[in-house]
Amino acid sequence: MADVRTCILIPVYNHPDSIANVCAWVAHLNLPILLVDDGSDVRCARALDELAAQGHQLLRLAHNQGKGAAVRAGLAHAEQLGFTHALQIDADGQHAVADLPAFLAMPEQAPQALVIGYPRYDTSVSRIRFYGRYATHIWVWINTLSLDICDSMCGARLYPLREVNALLHRHACGDRMAFDTEILVRWHWSGGAFRNLPVRVHYPTDGVSHFRLLRDNLQISGMHARLFFGMLLRLPRLLTGRLRRQTVEVAG
């Protein structure tokens, strides 16, 4: 297996009170940290400058473009820096650091697999947030004709950079919240390998959410509709691939 070089990728937009702690929590993983400043305000930008002065990589976008754009820019920059994989986590500290080593070990088994987290919530999750995710889950299962993707909205995932950036060169997958889901569906359509791993999730009581109810729900609905028609165009190939996999499983 070729040498694996992994960095931690954290898109940041106005999380001045948590980002330093998140960097400190993942420090024991002994991996370089790449912070992507998605046009944060002065206070958060100052906090990121302090982290950069401590040796962390900082990529600064001129203005806020959305989580998808920040992740996409970070993935491209990470590959330019010579990394083969990027472990994405959120800037609010919601993902349990103790669960991340399992993600980092996965390239030893499947170096080209996209490793996605599926959340194990504690009592901090609201019912609206918990059940609201299932609308997206159902559409993803329809658009991939499979249950291969356990959760398409979790922000903890390990990207194989060369393969994912090649996909993003063909399909940008959106600039905002729809990005996380669309890239997984298009990765599935391309025949990319998946691994699903559990990650414990805790929502801080003072956490900052940048989800905009009307704007983001409209974009997510448009994304699902676009992917549905894309699935219909690919239906013969998807059905053939599904049948082939089932044949292999039975033979095995």
Automatic annotation (TrEMBL):
SUPFAM superfamilies xref list: Nucleotide-diphospho-sugar transferases
GO biological process terms held by the UniProt record: protein N-linked glycosylation
Alphabetized InterPro entries for the sequence: Glyco_trans_2-like, Nucleotide-diphossugar_trans
Residue ranges of domain Glycosyltransferase 2-like in the record: 7-157
CDD domains, alphabetized: DPM_DPG-synthase_like
Stored Pfam families: Glycos_transf_2 (PF00535)
Name this protein carries in UniProt: Glycosyltransferase 2-like domain-containing protein
